[in-house]
Structures are given as C-alpha cells and as structure tokens.
Amino acid sequence: MSEHRHGDGPEHDQPHDNHFTDMEARVKALESLLTEKGLIDPAAIDAIVETYETKVGPRNGARVVARAWADASFAEWLRRDATAAIASLGFTGRQGEHMRAVFNTPETHNLVVCTLCSCYPWAVLGLPPVWYKAPPYRSRVVIDPRGVLAEFGLDLPADKKVRVWDSTAELRYLVVPERPDGTEGFSEEALADLVTRDSMIGTGLALSPEAVR
Amino acid sequence: MNGPHDLGGQQGFGPIAPERNEPVFHAEWEKRALGITLSCGAFGAWTIDESRHARECLPPATYLSASYYEIWTRALETLLKRHGFVTQAELDAGHSLSRGREPRTLLKAEMVAGVLAKGGPCDRPVDAPPRFAVGERVRTKNFNPETHTRLPRYARAGAGVVEAVQGSFVFPDDNAHGKGEHPQWVYTVVFDGHEIWGEGADPSLTVSIDAWESYLECV
To answer: Has residue A12 got a pLDDT over 80?
Structure first.
C-alpha cells in the first residue's frame, strides 16, 4: 500500500482516503468487465494516463503566464481571447475549450473554485489536485477566502480585494499572477520557473527569484 | 438539485490540508478510474451534464466520504447500467453475462491524442440577442429544482451585476436529462460578499458565477 501514502501531514485523516482497497477491487472488476465486453481498450487508458502524467500539466500554464509577462501584446490577446491565445502555444482540448484568463493586480487577488464539482482548466494545469476537488476547499473558499489562503501560507493585505470565480459553467479560468519584482530581463523560460500551479489557481503567488535560486 | 455536491458556503469540513509535491495520482486504481471514465464518455451515449448529475445523485453520505475518483466510478456504473452497456449482475459478477449495447465509438489507443486535443466544446449559437448587458443589475432566480442545475444554492435570489456576456452555451438543466441542448447566453455575474453571506461577510470579497440567462431576472 505504499502508493496510498500521502506524505506527512493531517491529510491522512481526510475522508478522501477512505474506501481505498474497496475501490482498488471495484475499479479492477469494472475494467476487466468492460474489456471483456469490448467496450474499452486498456491501451487507451494507458495513453490517457500517460498524457496527464507527462504531457498536460501546470508547466503548460506556466508558459502561458511567462509569455504574458514578457509580451504585452500576448497579454492583451490573453485578456481578450484566452482560448485562442493559449492555443497559439499549443495548449488546447479537453477542459480547456473555453478559457478565460484573469489577471491579478495590486488591487485585486483572484481565486478559482468549482463549488459544484471539479471544473478545472486541464489543458493548462493538468488534472486538479485532490484538495481542489474535496469538500473543505469547495465549501469554504467562497465564504472565507482569506482563511483558505492562510492555510496555503498566503496572507493578503487587508485592503486587497479578493475575487472568487466559481466555475459554474463551461468557462475555465486561469489566474495570471503578478510578475515578481526583480525579474527584469528574465527569459520566458526563467519566468516560467517562477509560476507555480497554485499561483494559477490563486491559492499562491508567483515565486520570487530568490526562492528558486 | 440541492445535493451533496452543492458545497459553497457549507461549514465544518475541516482543514484543506494541501499536500506538498502532490503526485498526479495517489494509486494505480485512480489512473484506471480516470481512463475508464474518459473511455466510456467517448461512447457518446451520455453528455457531460448527465455525468455530473449522476455524480450529484449519489447518496450524500457516500458523496461526502468519497474521493473524487470514487465519485466518478460510482456514477459511471450508474450511467453504464442506465444506457444498457452493463447490468448490475455483471458488475457483481465481474464478467460478461450478456451482449449489451454496442457503443457508437470505441476509444482505441491511437485515437486518444486526437480526442483529448479536440475536447468537447459546448458553445452553440442562439438566435436571440443577449437579454442583459454588461453593467446591468440582475437578480438570480430563487428555485429548488429536484433536477440538475448549475445555479448554486448560495447564489440564488441574490442581486449582482453582469460583468461579461460570455457567449451562448448548451443549457445543462435540460441537457442533463436528455431534453436537448437548448443553448442560452451565459453571463458572469458578480456579487458582493455581503449580498450572499450577510452579516459578518468579508468586506473585501466579491464572488462571481457564470449564469445561464434563464437563471437571471431584471431587478
């Protein structure tokens, strides 16, 4: 059961860990039934898994943000037509069909959630983390975003506005964090290294250059 | 429906406990659950809206104690049975007992890249112009349908402002129940924290939802 380990921390007690062995058996039985009936191709499942393990993940979104920081006309395009601007970098498809980019500013911090299910911009961020899909985040972030952010180690100034985007329709939101100070002249690649997944959900900020040195 | 999925503003679920360096999957079965769910979705026998509704129809105690891949798997079993691909007896036995329905599309490995890259756009044209304009004040409907809706409870009967007209999209409240796509305009509507949460609300908070036109009324 080593694959069940979530590392150290209180998440061991979270309800999302329940039913583990039951589910292992249940999914195995389902896959073998569907394979026997000729309804699924196990090799297709491998290909799907490989896609989200190796090709589609938050590095895609980081490249979008880095381009927006480096190129004002791309940022403007991203603001106006995020789906097309993101597609120009090669990121399209499932759960990225209708993209919107929302830009953090000195006045406003943006934060994304799906209170009703698990909507998430797969094409730029990959599959959502467990916490994003679980009841604690989904219930609380719309009513107590500052309490949520504190759990992520983020304390916003009291006068900063907080805008929470609940993804209730088919639009998928990418937060463009503020560009960190001290990054003048950085290449897009170096900028992308500062862009974390959480900073593109809004539960974090982009890293400072010192943090990655 | 006012199901267990409609979580916004509920309290008592405890800490979020984000995991440092979280892996993409926590177990092999999660990988298979993802792949099976997407493969069966490719049959074209049901819509994403019907899938979401199948998930939110899980018994609340089950939904709230399950991981998301468990929710997906349980709902997928419901959909496979409802649409005649498997029977409960087959799920219990773990092997085939009858022929069952044939899918329109069988997702083969070589099709995966193309299918994922294409996605499933759900914007559709509508004839009528948008009823509401950017900057207009609107009120969300107060209703409690037992069927699928994407207007969360916390955002019902609230006054907000239209911030954007986002285009026209398949209407999930109908589409989830096989009644057709009936596309409508979708608007981003912003609410002050105080309008939704009342006394004690964070004064710096605004929350937006994306609302289909029929969720909205003139103020």
So the answer is: no
Question: Cβ(A141)–Cβ(B158) under 8 Å?
Answer: no
CA distance A6 to B21: 10
Distance (Å) from the alpha carbon of B66 to chain A's nearest alpha carbon: 5
User: Which helix H or strand E contains A25, and what residues bound it?
Assistant: helix A20-36
pLDDT tens per residue across span B124-170 = 999 999 999 999 999 999 999 999 999 999 999 999 999 999 999 99
Give CA–CA dist B86/A146, Å, rounded: 46
Given 3-state DSSP classes, what are the helix, strand and coil percentages for chain B, each rounded to the nearest 5? 35, 15, 50
- CATH for the stretch B137-218: 2.30.30.50
Q: At what angle do helices A72-80 and A58-70 cross, to 10 degrees?
A: 120
pLDDT surpasses 90 at A123: yes
Q: What is the pLDDT of residues A111-121, one digit of tens each?
A: 999 999 999 99
Q: Give pLDDT tens digits for B174-203.
A: 999 999 999 999 999 999 999 999 999 999
Residue A139 in tokens? 């219930």
Q: Which of A18, A152, A164 to mutate to test the interface with B (most CBs of B within 10 A)?
A: A164
Tokens matching residue B38 = 């997407």
CB-CB under 8 Å, B39 with A131: no
Q: Which CATH number fits domain A57-212: 3.20.20.70, 3.40.50.1240, 1.25.40.10, 3.90.330.10?
A: 3.90.330.10
- The catalytic residues of A are 114, 117-119
What angle in degrees, to the nearest 10, is found between the helix axes of B68-82 and B48-56? 110
Task: Match 């950085």 to its residue by tokens.
Answer: A186
Q: Give the per-residue pLDDT at A20.
A: 60
Strand ranges across the sheet with B205-212? A108-113, A161-166, B205-212, B184-192, B159-169, B137-140, B216-218
